[in-house]
Structures are given as structure tokens and as C-alpha cells.
Amino acid sequence: MVEGALIWPLFHQNFAYMKIKTFTLAWLLAICISPSLFAQNFDVYVSDAGNFNLPGNWQILKFDENGENGQVFISDHLAWPQDIFFIESNNTVLISNLNTGTLSKFDATTGAFLEEFATGISGPTRMKLGPDSLLYVLQWSPNTRVKRYQLNGTFVDDFTKTNTGSAIGLDWDAEGNLFVASYNGNYVRKYSPNGDDLGNFISSGLNGPTNIWFNDEGDLFVNNWNNGIVKRFDGLGNFVEDFITGAPNCEGVDFFPNGDIAIGVGGTSSVKVYSPDGAFIKDLVAPGTLNLLVPNAVVFRGKTASKTKDKYLEMSFVSPTIGSHFQISNPDFAGRSLSCEVFDTSGLFVQKMEFSGQTIWDASSLANGIYYLTVKLPDGTMARQKVVVQR
User: Fold this and answer.
1) For residue 337, which of 17, 122, 132, 216 is within the disulfide window of CB 3.0 to 4.6 Å?
2) pLDDT tens-digit map of 147-194
């Protein structure tokens, strides 16, 4: 990567999974066992940076979960696209455009351009939903901070108290601390849940870091664009291992339900799949498919769910049951990572939250109506509760 030549890497979200790390959800009584749990398959969306700052090859591609039936989903109103973020409540998708400083909004079904969601951003890169249900946006330019937006496009604030230039990767730990990767700085910075600067979490051993993510054990993984290595660090920032090697220009990441990892590999113009232990499995998107050049974001999005014959426990773990803000708590399983999926009454997948600890689920961006929250417990049991969103 040569910054002077305006050639640098780009960006991620999570399976409409929207990985939110600090959530509060309270387990009370199991009431009954009932058939029919929602399940879903998904589509794969890939941002193609093309020739970086040069127009002509920018595109957003769409594939099925097997990497087949590919199509060009979006090809206009793009200006060096960085990341893909779906807002399921109004069936739209945001694309961050580095060249124009905009988050552009498109129809999530047709890919048609709708309007600018936000403007005046200094090189927007990654976007991710935070534990406070606000959209966090990183900026590439020097002397810039992490921005926050409501999902209706209203600007909230510059969240971090200090700057992080060439910021292109973010995630939260189980305590709600925010971590931001700086490509040119070769560090990962740590911020408190209030945005206070806690210093560098990783200061050495990185080589053009892009996407970062925590696993259930609290280890941090870092894609390194320049040397094609995904590195693993423990919860204190100590180097553990080279988790994946031979992935030149690795950028963009999302996760299969079974734990397999999809990573965009710009050096081979492909999306590759790795096992949870880092072993290469296959190409999900073959090199150069649909003229793919530089896959800098990989995002999974759930389709309309179909019902299965799985059984679930009807439980009370969300309070109140009517409103727009819900407390979700898990005192019996504190410190363990669980996933909560939200569906509407038609079975349409709305959102997935990975939580450990405490928080409030803000559902104010959703349409009024009934929603089902389902959680897979550590013993494999599926729990579900119905809530009514009413603003």
C-alpha cells in the first residue's frame, strides 16, 4: 500500500449479524416447549474496490451462500466503496464511499440508489452497529475521530476523544470497550465505552491492519493487508500466533453459522473460506468472478426465514415486553458469549446480536409490531420470547 499514490485497503460488517458485544438480558422461567423455530439462509455481498481511487471498476456484488448465482447488485453512485451495512427495518443498505465522503443509501432488494444517508465524512471506511444501537463510522483521513449516527441518518457525535487516522477496522470486547485498527499507524487503539482513549492495545507486529474481530474467548484477530497474515492476540494484547497465512491483501470478513470464516483476499481477487482453526477450506467466490478485483468488504445477509421443526423454550428474558427499549440480561451465564436473533412475525430475519454482559436493546428504529427474540443457550437449547415494539 502506498498512501501517496492513494492506494490503500478497505472494509466490513457482520452477517446482518451486526456484532454487538455488550448486552443485558435476564433469564427467568421456562414456560413451555413449542414447535417451530425460525431459521434462515443468506446471501453474500462483496464490495469491490476495483482500481482503488480510479473510477470504472467499483461495484457491489451479490451471491448466494454457496458463492453461486452471482450478479452485479450496485454499480452506480459508488466512489471507492468501502463497506456495506444493511438497515433491515426499512429494507435499505448503506455503502461508505471514501472519495466523496458519503454514506449512500440504496434499496436493499433492487440495489437502486435512494439518497445520501450522511455527507461530509473525511474518507468513511468501516461501518458497524455498536452496543448502543448506533452506527459507528470510521474515517481514513488523519486527525479524525469515530463518528456515530442514528439509523435514520441523524448525526450524534464524534464518539472518541482522540484521533485515529487511516482507521479501517473496529470491534468491541465483552466489556464494551471499542477497538480501532489504524492501517498506516500499524496499531490497534482501545477506547472505553464512553470514548475515552485507553492507549494502544497492540503497538507492534502489525503490517497494514484492516478488519479486526474478537472471538468468544476474548482473543483479537487482525487482518494484515501488507503481508497477508491474520494474526491472533490474547485479551491482553499479547501475540499468540499467525492464525492464517498466505492471504495477500486480506480485507473484509464475515462468519458462517458453523464458525467458518469468509475473508476477502485482494491478492487473488477472491473470497476464501477458512475453518474456525484457520485452515483453508475453499474459495467461496472464485478469483475474478464478475470481474472482481479487490474484495474489501464481505457481508452476509439473512434471507426470509423458513420454519423448521426444531423446538425451543418459551422463556422470559427480555423486559419490558412492550416498548422501544428492552433490557436483555444473562446473569446465569455471565462472561459467556451468546447470540440473540430477532425476527418479525413473517419470519424475516431482522438482526443478530452477540452479547456478553449488560446493555439495553434499542428497537426504536424498527416498525411498530411483534418481534421474536431467539437465543441459543450454551447447552444447545433454543429459547424464544415475543415482544411488542411500540414507540
Assistant:
1) 216
2) 999 999 999 999 999 999 999 999 999 888 999 999 999 999 999 999
- Side-chain half-sphere CA neighbours of 65 within 13 A: 14
CA atoms within 13 A on the CB side of 281: 17
Are the CB atoms for 254 and 221 separated by under 8 Å? no
d(CA 326, CA 131): 13
Q: Grid cell 491482553 — which residue?
A: 236
* Residue 87 grid coordinates: 438497515
**Tens digit of each residue's pLDDT (9 = 90 or more) over 220-258:** 999 999 999 999 999 999 999 999 999 999 999 999 878
276 alpha carbon, distance to own chain's centre: 17
**What 3-state class would DSSP assign to 90?**
helix
Return the closest-CA partner of residue 74 out of 110, 42, 32: 110
User: What does the alpha-carbon distance between residue 388 and residue 391 come to, in Å, rounded to a whole number?
Assistant: 10
Model-level pTM?
0.74
